[in-house]
């Protein structure tokens, strides 16, 4: 029987299914039951704390009840730690859910969205889903953020300026001075959204979280955060945002689904905030492994971009899709980048030391093999 035809919105035509990466189960047969190094999704490889596990178990006891639609306890905790008013926060099913909510709140066909490139694909996809046009600010030839081009674009009355800081996948970042220049250049008719999914990893004197400017900035600003990375709660899907605009928060609350953050995720996030030492230990270990991997990859003659995330963006000098597929035979999962101009790059997460060594050893063998 032929499947019935459904006419879809024309804005969906250029979209492609998001490359969510491979699961452990999908790779198990390829590597013959050996260990799998899952380094393709920028996950935190460290176990969650016993306190978080206990909070999750307790939350399950009332699974028959709807969760708090405002994530009130969690919002008050974050407000206490950041100084941002509860009324200026919004929560979502991961920060990528909030990207979707933002697009549906703001964008109409013909609107312009400015983003850095290479980009987190959903930054572009959600804009295109709403019929908006995407303007890419590409890296310079020597793999730096083109700050002059970004400032020029931001000065125009575009609908939305959306970028990750640190960047995903490139790992690059705006310095505190460059971020201040961007905020100053922002046109008053534009919304600036800074996706800070990797902010906990962004250690160093030339990086500053955007919350420093939130209170006094006089143009619409939205800052997105997540518990999926440094806090290790990727499977639970919980993210949040801050804004200085009551209009924007109000509009996003109208668009989001009413119970978009489940009770187990709320409880886990609240408990994770009470374990800052656990988070800091995981961040410190991941950054040490990231730097070890960067040095080893550079020694192999590969181009490795500087990174303030828990991952590296690496030009392997050959088709990344084929290389990533060959790595699966060694039980190693990395993410081959498929955006135009970056088809020779892989993005690899910093896992546990044995996983990273497994990756480096497998890659070294492959690069020495003929025919690749």
TrEMBL record:
GO MF term list: histidinol-phosphate transaminase activity; pyridoxal phosphate binding
Catalytic activity: L-histidinol phosphate + 2-oxoglutarate = 3-(imidazol-4-yl)-2-oxopropyl phosphate + L-glutamate
Domain of life where this protein originates: Bacteria
GO biological process: L-histidine biosynthetic process
Protein EC: 2.6.1.9
CDD domains found in the cross-reference section: AAT_like
Domain Aminotransferase class I/classII large stretches: 37-357
Database matches in InterPro entries: Aminotrans_II_pyridoxalP_BS, Aminotransferase_I/II_large, HisP_aminotrans, HistidinolP_aminotransfase, PyrdxlP-dep_Trfase, PyrdxlP-dep_Trfase_major, PyrdxlP-dep_Trfase_small
Cofactor: pyridoxal 5'-phosphate
Pathway: Amino-acid biosynthesis; L-histidine biosynthesis; L-histidine from 5-phospho-alpha-D-ribose 1-diphosphate: step 7/9
Keywords: Amino-acid biosynthesis, Aminotransferase, Histidine biosynthesis, Pyridoxal phosphate, Transferase
Subunit-structure text: Homodimer.
Family the entry assigns: Belongs to the class-II pyridoxal-phosphate-dependent aminotransferase family. Histidinol-phosphate aminotransferase subfamily.
Name of the protein in its database record: Histidinol-phosphate aminotransferase
